[in-house]
Write a structure and sequence with these properties.
single chain, 105 residues, alpha/beta, 5-stranded mixed sheet, 4 helices, 5 strands, Thioredoxin, Thioredoxin-like_sf
């Protein structure tokens, strides 16, 4: 299951995580974001214990979205040791996201 992230929890949940973290920057009104939402949830379950998967609503958490220069959504960032190691922009197939996550494990 995907974590619900916010500006307030981002540092603790993502930057200080001891496992890689996939963060889905999304908005409720975004069609492509809705398309990949079930995939993000699925990956959260599949990678439980090995990696974290979280979602951050850019409309409610603009500080973090701006800090990471999220210009279009969905944008998915993979963090490892507090740093962005991969960026995926747009709705992509589950296999693509899974391969990206596996690559940083």
């Amino acid at each position: 299951m995907a974590l619900i992230l916010s500006d307030a929890t981002f540092k603790e949940q993502v930057l200080e995580s001891d496992v890689p973290v996939l963060v889905d920057f999304y908005a409720d009104w975004c069609g492509p974001c809705k398309m990949i939402a079930p995939i993000v949830e699925e990956l959260g379950k599949k990678f439980e214990g090995k990696a974290k998967v979280g979602k951050l609503d850019v409309d409610s958490n603009g500080v973090t979205a701006q800090q990471y220069r999220v210009m279009s959504i969905p944008t998915l960032l993979i963090f490892k040791d507090g740093k962005v190691v991969d960026t995926i922009v747009g709705a992509v197939p589950k296999q693509h996201l899974e391969a990206k996550l596996n690559a940083v494990l």
